[in-house]
Amino acid sequence: MSAPETAPRPLPPALAGLRGGLRTIWTHRKARIGLIVLGLFVVLAVLAPWIAPYDPKDNSFGRSLAGSAQHWLGTTAAGEDVLSQLIHGARISLLVGFGAGGISTIISVVIGLCWGYVRGLPGEVINFVVNLFLVIPGLPLMIVVATYLSDGGISVIIAVIAITGWAWGARVLRSQTASLRGRDFVEAARFSGERAPRIIFREILPNMTSLIAGGFFGAATAAILAEAGLEYLGLGDSTIVSWGTMLYWAQNSNALLTGQWALLFAPGLCIALLATSLTLINFGIDGISNPRLREGSTGR
Amino acid sequence: SLQIRSRPDPTIGPDTMLVAGDKGTPTFTANFNPFHANKRTAASILYEPLIWINPLDGELVPWLAESWDQPDPQRIVLTLREGVSWHDGTPLTGEDVDYTFRMLQDFPANDVAGAWGRIDTLEVDGRTIAITLKSPDSPALPVIGQTVIVPRHLWEGVADPSTWRNEEPVGSGPFQLGTFTALQYTLDRFPGHWQASSIDIEHLVYPAASEELDLVTKGYDWAYAYMSDVENTWMAANDANRYWFPPGGIIGLHPNHDVAPFDDVDVRRGLALALDGRQVAEVAAEGYMDEASQSGLLLPNQEDLLDPSLPERGIIGQDTQAAIAAFEKAGFTYDGTTMRTPEGEPFTFAITTANGYTDWLRAVQEVQRELGAIGIAVDIDAPQPAAYEANLSSGDYQVAVGSSNGSDAFQGFSNLMSGEYYVPVGETSQNNRIRYRSAEADELITRYRASVDEAEQSEILHALQRLFHTDLPVIALYYGGLWGLYNQARFTGWPTAEDPYAPLQTYGSSPLLVLTRLRRAQKEAS
Amino acid sequence: MTGTETTTGPRDTPGGEAPLLSVRDLSVVYEPVGATPTRAVKDVSFDVGRGEFLGLVGESGSGKSTLGFAITALARPPARIEGGRILFGDVDIASMDHEQLRTQRQGGFAMVLQAGMNTLNPVRTIRQHFGDIFAAHRHVAPARREARAAELVRRVSLGPEVLDRYPFELSGGMRQRVTIALALSLEPQLMVFDEPTTALDVLVQHAVMDTIRALQAEEGFTAILISHDLGVVLESAHRVLVMREGRIVEDAPSADILHRPQHEYTRMLLSHFADPRAEHVSLPGIEAPEPAADGPDGPDAPAADGPDGPDAPAADGPDAPAADAAAADAPAADGPGRRRPGAGLELRVEGVTKSFAPPRRRAAGVLAVDDVSFTLAPGGATALVGQSGSGKSTLAKMITGVEKPTAGTIHLGSTSIGPLRGRALRELRRTVQMVFQDPYSALNPLSTVEYTLTRALANLTDLRGPALRRRMLELLETVGLTPVEQYAAKLPHQLSGGQRQRVVIARALAADPQVIIADEPVSMLDVSLRAGVLALLRDLRERTGMSLLYITHDLLSARLITDDILVLHEGRVVEQGPTAQVMRHPRDEYTIRLLEAIPDPARVHGA
Amino acid sequence: MRYFLQRGGWFALTLWAAITLNFLLPRMMPGSPADAAIAKLSQNGPVTEETRRAVEAQLGVPDGSLIQQYVDYLRQILSLDFGVSYAFYPEPVSGLVAQALPYTLVLVGLVTIASFVIGTLLGVLAAWRRGTWMDALPTVGGSFLTTFPYFWTSLLLLFFLGYVAHLFPTFGAFSATTQPGLDWGTVVDAVYHAALPATTMLITSLGGWVLGMRNAMITTLGEDHVTFAEANGIPGRTVALKYAARNAILPNLTGFGMALGGVVGGSILVEQVFGYPGIGFLLFNAVTGQDYPLMQAIFLMITVSVLVANLLVDILYGILDPRTRR
Ligand SMILES: Nc1ncnc2c1ncn2[C@@H]1O[C@H](COP(=O)(O)OP(=O)(O)OP(=O)(O)O)[C@@H](O)[C@H]1O
Ligand SMILES: Nc1ncnc2c1ncn2[C@@H]1O[C@H](COP(=O)(O)OP(=O)(O)OP(=O)(O)O)[C@@H](O)[C@H]1O
Ligand SMILES: [Mg+2]
Ligand SMILES: [Mg+2]
To answer: Where, by residue number, does the polypeptide cross the bilayer (chain A) (predicted)?
Structure first.
């Protein structure tokens, strides 16, 4: 237990935890694949303007062309290059995934932690609000809010997904908080004169990093799928280039009839791949929050 | 690549037509009340109007009324056809006409065309229907004439015809209701119809499943749908498949005339000159439609109404230099990258379109691109259709994409430009939502209403076209199409560009005429 | 068979009879994914004869449980048997396949797991537990199963009504007995008890051990008792194995261990064992104050005690200098504004009662504390003892303002603690501080020692900037964690249990409190670490003059560091007086039972 | 008694808040029901002021203050009268819902239950045979399928198995020519029509249950009572089912309750793609058609069923977990 005398001065604990967490994730085979795939998508998204052969909205090409050397995946019914759209689409999906996933995670962290920490009436009130959000049907609510805010572009989509998607995470974090709250170090912090917000966010929160990270990747996956669904239903902003809108236009211009297989296949596959990469990363994170889930066999 | 071919249902006989005329959402509700917005589309051929109006050019064709007369601009006299009978065998008489109009008066919810907004008195005497209008109003004839007549003996007992669903319809049309399920209904030939000899089709089948994929794969004989890449989809799926896409309205930019700077004609002209209508049509409608004439007419349908003095048949081509000049005339400045308003701000505005109207959306995107080229930044607002309607009605927009100027040329100008309909921003109106005011337009419209002389009417229409062309109440972009798809293997006599007797709409009263003209390609060997 | 067969030697088998269990060069390694492997058992060899009662002692983490799992063939990944053989009778258990292993659980070897209260399936009744075992082995005819189950629970002194209960409806002691009964139902030849009493209350612990001893005597099975408590093991076992860092360092009959310990580690363990009832009680590094009759002991008197020095185990290096330092520069280390000893505030508890709402509907409310009154003089040290659930912690919570009394008042000087809320309550933390029971959970695993201490200082004192850090380092020095700079930067997992508890104490000292409440501050620590922490507590009290309320169920430690004692039973004070006097001449029957429950190997093996 | 009052109180309060939200949400949407109807009409050409007036008169578009509407709405709910739909004017809302509900309940309900049962069993197997292919296949396969956008999976199945291969029907819950009844032929026909939507929903939802159960089960398998059961020689199957799975399923029940409650809402995207006449499609029409009464009725139904499903799960929880019994 005792540390060697020559131990190097440790990193700030949060950073050290992060580094340790990343290392644990990296050692997990599935999670490593997930990180690599996600990394590829991020590179694709960041470098989209340089990688993509054309401007995704350049509609000066022939309509509904089949794949060729100029247009690997053909063109859309409006004469845009499918490959370029696919590459640029990664930006929106990542933006929505990380944006909406991030915001809803923040909401669920703030609410979940306070909910788990406070007792009595305020707790009941939060309980009530969260239950309400859990009870109100998600996708319909999303549709209603999306129609209400229909002309704000992608930021509205992000907001809508975030607003409708935090409640479940809050519930999970609440129970974890409630159990951490009973730990002596929380009581001890109170004895050190700490105030509630600091106890919640400085003492309790860092101990749930992996749970929160897991929640974040879960929320990001859900957000990516939700964005695609909303765009597909035509309730998003059809002028942006995203995988969801690509599917919307594919359906709208009957890509199946015009033989634009790539237009139909590729965006869905990309969504699935991106979401899979996040899920794979979550396998690794599960291993951190619950060491029993780390790879291994039961020997049976 | 994999070619999708149609696979007609072999059980459908040569006397039966498969029509994609009614889309289930996803199933059908049995509502055959012809006055309802939610009626089954076939209700429009189960019941017949007094006058059939051609949606292509507004031509009036005698239908239940065999003739009419407008002795003066405030009077209409119609003569009811003889020998017409209801599906149940009861003869259709003036009493039914009288009942129908009284019913519309009592239940304004059913008065969809607003006939009683114009009728002062209505007398039916045998087959003569004499109408006095509230004011000199010669264009009231098509409005009143399109009223469908319902049987008094069946409707009289209905407590509230405006909420009645009329599930077992009895009309006078060429077809009567056969079977009805939530996913499909059929119509059967009505042998007692006054045109029975012209009805060669025995059965019509209306399935609820009428997505584009269904149209192509299920062997439909007649459909009305915008089909992307029609040559390689619809046409390629079956050798006998054909299409005909005549114009049916003008899709244009509707500036809000109560919002600066769109009240300035130079700005509107600048916008019109900056845009390449042909390119917009190309992008929005995959080249199937033409750029629209700024005459306000549907060309070529209404070629005979066109004012010959208009240059280029009223089409305003793209002329960037002229556009910039027009803007500069309005006090704008252009430095080669940014168009600035007289106040020195970069000129940006929002175009409102309805979410889900994909051709409009593509058109706006093209407009955005083209205006961007002369330094004007356009934002796109795409609220849901209901919100779009609400925004336009209340004037809560800067510029909107909209459709105007249908088959009735005068009605088109009047609805759009009449100061009579003007309401300020904040109040709602369905006509003149662009909030246009012009003394000249008002004067022309009043004159037209008071005229029953064709030559004078034509002359006024020319003046309206010139006004539309110079004052640009709406900036015409391209024609909205009437997306007719048909198969000529089993039925012939379809309307075409060469014989444009009716559009191929499967809704409204178009089918009345089309279905009575079509002939079976092969008769059964019986 | 009775406990007379003590002839079994360590390596050879007596009378040619084959040992029941023979372990040869056994090594077990833990290989968790993504972490460094731990060799928990290293080259262990020993034999167990039939009917023998073998004890296995060693501090936490020495590999006792690992060994227990290995010899009952329950080792599961990440544990892996790296080498060696385990012969049960004459079968190598490694050669048994899954099904053979399973079937031999009946009539073979059984194990009662550590933390026995959690080894029952919470959603099955006790009857179903028995039923599953009978169904699995079919060694009891279906018609007799009911009677057999009742018989088994009776053997562990429980009534047949427990059969219909769910585990959560039983107390910890009852659950532990049920697990023993379940293991018994297998009619095993060898039974391994892994710390069967550790989590239990003193009195219950005593009763359960009695049960185990009686059962072993009656049934004659071979038993291996794993425990970290040398007293318990010596009292029961014929022979004792002492384990340390995965190796067996001593293997001898109990009497020899008690009287002639060979290994230095065994001697260290023994030296931390004392009887609180004795006239003079001392542990390495700490000596109990003399009974009151010997005259009032000045606060400075015992400070002359040497450090844990020579007796302290060499293995626990980092702790050793602690006491050294504490003793060496006692007054110098004190911060500015130090109070005179005895100049603090008096804590007066008057007629305090606390009742809790019933945990379930229709159940009666819990009267956790019932009309308790006492006074803690400035600079005084009072012990609060009593079995689990007697209301000790509840009382502590009321004194610290965490809970509000239902009736009665608590005064600190002139301040009434009951009505304090919010800000005023935070102010109270400057005067009343708490040392927590479990140093492993009382420190945020993600905060450095420096952060933990600095926060307390920043909140509770007016120090800021460099002064803050200086004071923080001073505190570390006070609790003997030197070199201070090095310790300041450490995270809790880099510290031993004793060092952690010192940090916890340092934090409590941050505000220069006048009253410290220590709720079982050493019960989670290994014996080798206890004395150091206790010495520190006593020393601090004497140097700073703060008063100490020491909560424990361990009478020995109460004897060592307190002057007065309160014995709490079901929320009421049953006996009260000077510590030494109460221990030596208890009057209340409950106190007597408490004292009797303390294991006394001398009773078995002679003094 | 107090406990029940308290719980009942929270239930009622949640219900009330949800009902109120259901009232407010649609009204927050821009545009009125008439605007929606006109938007639909205007796709067939410009609509005149006269037509708008007729449409408004037909729909009886809500008037009166918001408070008045709210009071009427509450009264309607109490009398279980949900009024007349706007989008399907003049169909009564109750009729529309009654027509759509059975399809959704059967299709989505059965799929949800099947998915939970199959997924949980696979999760048990995966955890028990950890590290083998029986673990890898369901966990990796299941979670990969879960990441597919399910409308996309639907589209692919519909296109290839429906339109291209002509193996399955592409639209509706029964054949166009059958009049739905309760005979054997109809049932076969209905199953045939439900096959593709059911498959999509099943494969995209299975992974979640597999993973949830597997993780819970692995955690449970590490607990002492499982080791003790093994130490007592209890056979593997009994340990897996009665000692591990039995306990591990408890946390998943909450999710199952939510899912069951959500069944009533149908599956908007799947029903939309397959033209399935369930509540999901109806709801989509209601939302896009600004159909307040229909939206309110469906939202209310969903809310109540989620609440009730949760209540049922609570009860079930009590039966399965003696610790919560009171
Ligand atoms: N699952 C595990 N994975 C990795 N290391 C483990 C595991 N279980 C135990 N160890 C390590 O093996 C060593 C021996 O542990 P073991 O549980 O046998 O100790 P013990 O003597 O029973 O201690 P205690 O008295 O605390 O029960 C310890 O260092 C411990 O950290
Ligand atoms: N918050 C609470 N709600 C209800 N009952 C409680 C609560 N806290 C304690 N109790 C009950 O009060 C009694 C006294 O508990 P307390 O924790 O004070 O005992 P203790 O002497 O500290 O025991 P231990 O030695 O196990 O720590 C117990 O019966 C306990 O169950
Ligand atoms: Mg152990
Ligand atoms: Mg306690």
So the answer is: 33-52, 92-118, 125-148, 154-173, 204-226, 262-285
**Which parts of C254-346 are beta strand (E)?**
282-283, 286-287
Q: Which domain holds residue C219?
A: 51-66+96-270
- Domain of residue A184: give its range: 34-52+75-295
Instruction: Determine the residue of chain C that is closest to A180 in CA distance.
Output: C441
CA dist B209 and B287 (Å) reads 28
How many angstroms separate the CA of residue B394 from the nearest CA in chain A? 17
Q: What is the pLDDT of residue D63?
A: 67
pLDDT band at B525 (very low <50, low <70, confident <90, very high): very low
Q: Is D73 on the interface with C (CB under 8 A)?
A: no
Q: What are the tens digits of pLDDT across the range B179-237?
A: 998 889 999 999 999 999 999 999 999 998 888 888 888 889 999 998 888 888 899 88
Residue C285 and residue C326 in contact, taking contact as beta carbons nearer than 8 Å = no
Strand partners, C259: none
Whether the predicted pLDDT of A25 surpasses 80: no
Give me the DSSP letters along D18-66. HHHHHHHHHHHSSS-HHHHHHHHHGGGS---HHHHHHHHHHHT---S-H
CA atoms within 13 A on the CB side of B318: 15
Poorest-confidence range of B20-24, D82-86, D98-102, D314-318? D314-318
> Residue C462 to residues A189, B102, B472, C33, C471: CA-CA distances in angstroms?
18, 92, 77, 48, 11
What pLDDT score does A8 carry? 42
Burial B132-168 (b: 16+ CB within 10 A, else e): ebeebbbbbbbbbbbbbbbbbebbeeeeebbbbbbee
Average pLDDT of chain D, as a whole number:
84
Domains held by chain C: number:
2
Q: Residue B152: pLDDT above 90? A: yes
Question: Is ipTM over 0.85?
Answer: no
- Is the domain of C201 the same as that of C348? no
In chain D the domains, ranked by start, together with CATH numbers, are 33-79 (no CATH), 93-325 (1.10.3720.10)
- CA neighbor of C269 nearest in space, from C82, C528, C71: C528
Subunit contact C447:A203, Cβ cutoff 8 A: yes
Query: C341-351 as b/e, with b when 16 or more CB fall inside 10 Å?
Result: beebbbbbbee
Q: Quote the minimal CA–CA distance from D233 to chain C in Å.
A: 5
Model confidence at C94, in pLDDT bands (50, 70, 90)? confident
Give dist(CA C524, CA C442) in Å, integer: 12
Query: Angle at the Cα of C260 (from C257 to C265), degrees rounded to 5?
Result: 65
Ligand 1, atom 11, residue with closest C-alpha:
C40
Flag whether A277 is in a domain: yes
Query: Residue of the nearest CA to atom 2 in ligand 1?
Result: C30
Let me know: does C195 contact C229? Beta carbons within 8 Å.
no
Edge-first strand order for the sheet with C515-519 is C432-435, C515-519, C547-552, C381-385, C564-569, C572-578
User: What are C's interface residues with D at a Cβ cutoff of 8 A?
Assistant: 72, 74, 76, 98, 101-106, 110-111, 113, 115, 118-125, 132-133, 135-137, 166, 168, 179, 182-183, 186, 360-361
CATH of the domain at C540: 3.40.50.300
Q: Tell me the pTM.
A: 0.84
- β C239-244/C53-57 pair status: parallel
pLDDT digits (tens, 9 = 90+) for C467-495: 999 999 999 988 888 888 888 988 888 88
Instruction: Answer whether B209's CB lies under 8 Å from B183's CB.
Output: yes
Structure confidence at residue B513 as a pLDDT band (50, 70, 90): very high
Instruction: Supply the mean pLDDT for chain B.
Output: 92
Residue C109 belongs to some domain of the structure: yes
- C228 CB less than 6 Å from ligand 1? yes
* Residue C386 belongs to a domain: yes
The CATH number of whichever domain residue A183 belongs to comes to 1.10.3720.10
